[in-house]
Design brief:
With 351 residues, the protein is an alpha+beta fold. The protein contains 13 helices and 13 strands. The protein has 2 domains: 82 residues, Phosphorylase Kinase, domain 1 (2-Layer Sandwich); 258 residues, Orthogonal Bundle (Transferase(Phosphotransferase), domain 1), CATH 1.10.510.10. Helices cover 36% and strands 17% of the residues. α7 runs antiparallel to α13 and α9 packs across α12.
């Protein structure tokens, strides 16, 4: 059982659980203010590497001050449990905030009023249209993984078979219409601009996030986004010492959102985060990720060898400017992508 108290915080309730720890809603014992407290299980259930990542997350985040980056308050060890206390963001993650089901159930107004957190199920609790619900369910996300770096294979005639397997079944007209609703596209632009602002700030301090994905972006009920989970963050200058790649040849991250260079265990810079942003943008526009193999080896080869399916196939009605930006961000060669978050921000502003 976890402790009822960690540091200066009293545990109130569970916010979410992951593979190696739990995030709790907690109350500061002196001020009464609420916080989110990430607690890792005790050793040996959680190894020292996870505890070091949590400590690194605190050391990095306590130096950052930006409205779109989550704030941290405290970190330490209580009764063998490592913990990190941070700002409690009451809201939805990026995928839920932009879910077609949210629009289907309670289409948000275009005015800047806060949204209701129960809007995703509707005020009556009744489900929305089945097709829209199915689309939302397709937009699932694996947890951060620790996987082996795979060996490259030579090109062969099997590439055509790989491409055929990677093709995604077309969406229905109803599903495409849900993705392309003007209200949803406007919300998408608004939240992506905030994420890009956060990345520009983080990159400007020489940091690379390395685990950018929809669940690591939270949007509160005032529509303000926060970039979260800096457990894999790294200084660009540390190119020769990458503790995410261990001596056993393991790499940590979420394969679906990894850049080709990260998936191969190569040094990464800010452009790797921008690639991950491209995966997110493509998925939000298309309703499905650009590379969707369930098997890690097949997914690895898709990321390295295949172009994403063109929007003409998956969602011809996608916003043209955003679709162009997504494909630009998804270039395999970092030199062919946007070179900075500032460049991405300018592209987002273009209509």
């Amino acid at each position: 059982m976890p402790p009822h108290r960690v540091g200066s915080y009293e545990i109130v309730s569970v916010v979410g659980r992951g593979g190696i720890g739990t995030v709790y809603r907690a109350r500061h014992l002196e001020t009464g203010e609420l916080a989110a407290v990430k607690v890792l299980g005790p050793a040996p259930a959680v190894d020292a590497t996870a505890a070091r990542r949590l400590a690194r997350e605190y050391e990095v985040l306590r130096t950052l001050d930006h409205p779109n980056v989550v704030r941290v308050f405290d970190a330490g060890v209580t009764e063998g449990y490592s913990y990190l206390a941070m700002e409690l963001v009451e809201g939805l993650d990026l995928r839920a905030y932009l879910s077609p089901a949210l629009d289907a159930d309670a289409c948000l107004a275009t005015d800047p009023e806060p949204f209701a957190l129960d809007a995703i199920t509707g005020s009556t609790g009744e489900p929305g249209p089945d097709a829209i619900r199915a689309l939302a369910a397709m937009m699932d996300e694996p947890e951060t993984e620790e996987v082996g770096v795979l060996a490259p294979r030579p090109a062969s005639g099997d590439d055509e078979d790989l491409a055929a397997c990677a093709r995604i079944a077309p969406l229905s007209e109803e599903q495409r219409a849900a993705l392309n609703r003007p209200v949803r596209v406007a919300r998408m632009r608004g939240v992506l601009e905030q994420v890009v602002d956060a990345l520009e700030y983080v990159h400007g301090r020489g940091l690379v996030h390395r685990d950018l994905k929809p669940s690591n972006v939270m949007v509160d009920d005032t529509r303000r986004a926060r970039l979260m989970d800096f457990g894999l963050v790294k200084l660009e200058a540390e190119r020769d010492v990458d503790d995410a790649l261990t001596q056993a040849g393991r790499i940590v991250g979420t394969y679906r959102y990894m850049s080709p260079e990260q998936a191969q265990g190569h040094p990464v810079d800010a452009r790797s985060d921008l690639y991950s942003l491209g995966v997110i943008l493509y998925e939000l526009l298309a309703g499905v990720p650009p590379f969707s193999a369930r098997d890690p080896v097949a997914l690895w080869h898709e990321i390295l060898d295949l172009p994403p399916p063109p929007f003409a196939e998956v969602n011809p009605g996608a916003d043209p400017a955003l679709a162009r930006l997504a494909l630009h961000l998804l270039e395999k060669d970092p030199a062919r992508r946007p070179q900075s978050a500032a460049e991405v921000r300018r592209a987002l502003a273009a209509r």
